[in-house]
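Anyone up for a design puzzle?
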């Protein structure tokens, strides 16, 4: 009797993204195998037999009732060499800092093809494994990476320019009695907006967003919505975390929501969703959907090709894009 055995020739590499079908009973689908199960599984063959004695069976008809068909091959966008580097570098840093988990995603700018996606978490024995796809499934507060969205909104509305001045004081400020503090250099006083962005100043960015949108917070949030940051990417792999961007007037909105959102709190996004925003800036304002599969093949012949899907043709104006690129270069 034939027995099938699953093998991972590259062991941990992208194991969670490659995925699996948990069982035929509950059909728990994970990763690309779960997403493309219909293409992969083929058709089982059937024939009617009758038992003639003991364990001997004889076909009733010469031909099968249903002929078996091989499943198709799914060709992913992953580059095994880049994946190897990403996985090993992530592992090195997690061990160094004794971190609970981490993720790395490498995305091709123009096409959106995901060339590497590593997810490692520590188990109860202190070992790291690809047990959960944090890049896709973990909606969490993005923190300072969200300052890019805040700065795009302010530039687009014409409220700030990179050479404007903001007072970051001694690295501490308060909103309604709640403290906002910078984690890096302190005591810089009056600096340019460009410099505040470069040093990732919580004080600078929150003061700018609060002063310009305090009377009209809807305008700020609408800008975020226009960029599509409140929508799922709609990737084929199951389990994408839902983004959450608070709206003025909701039950959870408060006097500190606006400044807190400016540096990535009271906001939820997955790492892949944040990456897609940054990729859009690199891609001259065009936001593209992350792509995990290039082709479906059958016995070496291409049955279907998957092309780049545009989510948003222009996340902002060309002028804003030029300014924010220069600001990001300053960060580097």
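Challenge accepted. My sequence:
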């Amino acid at each position: 009797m034939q027995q099938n055995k699953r093998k991972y020739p590259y062991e941990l590499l992208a194991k969670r993204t490659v995925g699996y079908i948990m069982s035929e009973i509950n059909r728990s689908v994970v990763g690309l195998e779960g997403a493309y199960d219909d293409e992969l599984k083929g058709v089982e063959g059937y024939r009617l037999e009758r038992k003639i004695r003991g364990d001997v069976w004889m076909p009733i008809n010469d031909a099968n009732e249903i002929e078996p068909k091989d499943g198709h091959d799914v060709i992913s966008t992953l580059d095994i060499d880049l994946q190897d580097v990403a996985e090993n570098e992530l592992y090195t840093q997690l061990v160094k800092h004794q971190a609970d988990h981490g993720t790395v995603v490498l995305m091709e700018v123009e096409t959106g093809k995901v060339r590497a996606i590593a997810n490692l978490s520590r188990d109860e024995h202190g070992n790291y494994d690809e047990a959960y796809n944090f890049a896709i499934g973990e909606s969490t507060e993005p923190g300072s990476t969200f300052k890019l969205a805040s700065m795009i909104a302010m530039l687009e509305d014409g409220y700030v320019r990179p050479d404007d001045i903001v007072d970051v004081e001694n690295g501490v400020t308060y909103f309604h009695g709640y403290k906002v503090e910078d984690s890096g250099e302190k005591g810089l006083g009056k600096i340019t907006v460009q410099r505040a962005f470069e040093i990732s100043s919580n004080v600078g960015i929150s003061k700018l967003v609060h002063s310009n949108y305090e009377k009209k917070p809807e305008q700020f949030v609408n800008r975020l919505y226009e960029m599509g940051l409140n929508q799922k990417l709609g990737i084929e792999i199951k389990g994408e975390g839902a983004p959450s961007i608070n709206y003025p007037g909701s039950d959870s909105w408060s006097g500190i929501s606006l400044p807190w959102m400016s540096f990535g709190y009271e906001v939820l996004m997955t790492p892949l969703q944040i990456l897609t925003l940054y990729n859009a800036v690199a891609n001259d304002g065009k936001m593209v959907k992350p792509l995990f599969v290039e082709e479906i093949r059958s016995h070496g012949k291409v049955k279907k090709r998957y092309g780049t899907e545009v989510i948003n043709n222009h996340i902002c104006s060309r002028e804003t894009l030029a300014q924010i690129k220069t600001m990001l270069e300053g960060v580097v």
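A detail worth pointing out: Residues 97 and 196 are 28 Å apart (CA to CA).
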